[in-house]
Amino acid sequence: MKRVTKRLLIISGVVAGTLVCLLALGVGLYVYVTQPLQDGVPLGGGAVTAVVTDHFGPVAIAAYLFELGDGTVGLVDTGQDREAGAIRTALKRLGKTDLDLHVILLTHAHDDHAGGTAAFPSAEVYAIEPDSGFIRQRRQQAGVAAVMTKAVKDGDQLDLHGTHIEVYSLPGHTKGSAAFLVHGVLFLGDAAQGMRNGTLGPNNVLSEDAAGNDRALKILAERLKSRSPDIHHIPFGHSGPLLGLDPLLKWANLWQMKDSMRQANESSKL
Questions:
Q1: Per-residue pLDDT for the chain (270 aa), expressed as one digit of tens each?
Q2: How far apart are CA 266 and CA 268, in angstroms?
Q3: Alpha-carbon distance 19 to 5, whole Å?
Q4: DSSP-derived secondary structure for 64-91
Q5: 58, 60, 57, 25: which is closest to 241 by C-alpha?
């Protein structure tokens, strides 16, 4: 019995060590191949500012401040810091305080993107169901019930404090993942990442539904194709931004070609 127990412990240790090594390798590879995310980078002609809120090891976690038409400020994602320290510092650099933050758009409910919502109790928080329900529950558990999370849906056109905001459903990474278009900047959250060679890479490893994530990105590309000149940047949750809409359009064309080949191969086997 002791011998069996010892062998099980050794095997468990080897498996755990292997998993840790693979995770470290994956994280290192991700950082090496993706665009670096830099704090304070302006996007959308200066109307949007990138904020590095925290890190998972070497992987940065992003939020984005954006101007509202009445002189106040909006935010895309909040990081995982319950005190939102990096965001408060970024607000101060812009000559603002947390009281100037009136709108929060959440790309999805994962804690590294929604964990800091309770730090801004006066802000209205917008998200797509079912993720909006998770976020609402988190705010209530934190004792923040003054402003309820507002559920939005695909195709909504919002006019918030003098700023036009478009909402797109992007299910795949989570069921309620969303994309937002503000000031010519298309926020994709964790649906994809920007690669160092300027291409877009879908998040197929850490998504609840990788195939659904691909389909959602393809549909989004089709919907926005005619508006390509109006879209200046695509930022992400954990990598630096890409220029223009072309990276998404090129990825969608390549995905369509591969999908057509796959369907043709399946038909030939029948």
A1: 556 555 655 555 544 444 433 334 344 446 658 999 999 999 999 999 999 999 988 899 999 999 999 999 999 999 999 999 999 999 999 999 999 999 999 999 999 999 998 899 889 999 998 988 888 777 777 666 545 578 899 999 999 999 999 999 999 999 999 999 999 999 999 999 999 999 999 998 889 999 999 999 999 999 999 999 999 999 999 999 999 999 999 999 999 988 787 777 777 766
A2: 5
A3: 21
A4: EEEE-TTS-EEEE---S-TT-HHHHHHH
A5: 60
